[in-house]
Amino acid sequence: MTELGLFLSKKSASKAEISRKTGISKSRISELTLNPSTQLRAWELYLIALALDVDPGEMFKEMYKDLSLKND
């Protein structure tokens, strides 16, 4: 499962409802939630956040909280 998949699971979000609200196909939503090699586009994250009624920045921070810059 991807970071998006985990986030949606925590929110008990329906993939079908997100697809309906955003216009992103159900198959693309499934791919984004199940396949770690699939790249999530910024506009997709933004639309999904709007569909969930969450702040896109907070959603981004939550999903990628484990990322950090390399130490010099």
From TrEMBL:
SUPFAM superfamilies xrefs: lambda repressor-like DNA-binding domains
HTH cro/C1-type domain ranges (all copies): 7-60
Keywords annotated in UniProt: DNA-binding
Gene3D superfamilies: lambda repressor-like DNA-binding domains
A molecular function GO annotation: DNA binding
UniProt superkingdom: Bacteria
Pfam families reported for this sequence: HTH_26
Protein name in UniProt: DNA-binding protein
Source species: Flagellimonas olearia
